[in-house]
Amino acid sequence: MQVLEADGGRARCRDRHGVEAIIDLSLVGPVAGGEWLLTFLGSARERIDAQRARSIDRALSALEAALNGDVGAIDEAFSDLVGREPPLPELLRGAS
After folding, report:
1. What is the 3-state secondary structure (H, E, C) of the chain?
2. pLDDT in tens, 46-63
3. Assuming Cys at both sites, which of 42, 48, 84, 88 could form a disulfide with 92, CB separation 3.0 to 4.6 Å?
4. Which CB contacts under 8 angstroms, 24+ apart, belong to 27-36?
């Protein structure tokens, strides 16, 4: 969600569909208008940059399309994952 205005521990934000909501800022602290937040159940969980917000938006759009039977958008939305082997977490590297 993008912050429209903030007042203390709450901010008025707009989601990717244009819906506005009041978001609790207890976990992220003060924010300014224009900032992007990753939110869940009415609370900001993390500050994110515009590039990450676009990436999340593409992924959510692809998931919505897939749920509606259109799987063509998945490869485009997740292009960073297509055609590569996902890396193992650090703790599993070198383990056999």
Report:
1. CEEEEEECCEEEEECCCCCEEEEECCCCCCCCCCCEEEEECCEEEEEECHHHHHHHHHHHHHHHHHHCCCCCCHHHHCCCCCCCCCCCCHHHCCCC
2. 999 999 999 899 888 888
3. 88
4. 30/6, 31/3, 31/6, 32/3, 32/6, 33/3, 33/4, 33/5, 33/6, 34/2, 34/3, 35/2, 35/3, 36/1, 36/2, 36/3
Q: Which pLDDT tens digit goes with each residue over 15-29? A: 999 999 999 999 999
Site of tokens 């800022």 = 25
Average pLDDT over residues 71-79: 73
* Alpha-carbon gap, residue 88 to 96, rounded angstroms: 12
Q: Which two tokens stand for residue 95?
A: 């383990």
User: In this structure, what token pair is assigned to residue 72?
Assistant: 């063509």
Q: What amino acid occupies position 85?
A: E
